[in-house]
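Thread: "does anyone have the structure for this chain?"

Original post by V.I.:
We have the sequence but no experimental structure in hand. Need at least a predicted one for the grant figures.
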Amino acid sequence: MENIIAIKDYLKKLQKVINFEHTFNFFGSHLVKKSKIDDILCCIYAKLPDSYKKLQKSKVGSEKYSSILSYNILTKLLAKKFFLDKNLCDINVAEANKLIGSVLTSIERDIYNIQKKFDEE
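Reply from O.Q.:
Generated one for you, tokens below.
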């Protein structure tokens, strides 16, 4: 349970970094240091349960869980590098905030259901 709280805190921190700690912004995109994004994503990944990670990597069965779908799209969105400087990520703020919100609302339920499914097997 405390891992879920930590994951949610890291997601909120990621949202703050995207919204307020950007280097430059233009036309709804923010340029954020790649190292900040990677540090937070690493912390989130470390707190995820192993069963969630296994299902996240597999193509079969993960489409039932909205947090997995949203998180995978979010990581791809955050990996987009700025063409002039590879140390900056070019992030669409509206899309990132929507995906983070989606993950925040569904991750607790999904982790519980995934743990329950893996415990039954």
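V.I.: this helps a lot. The mean pLDDT is 88.
O.Q.: and The two ends are 21 Å apart (CA to CA).
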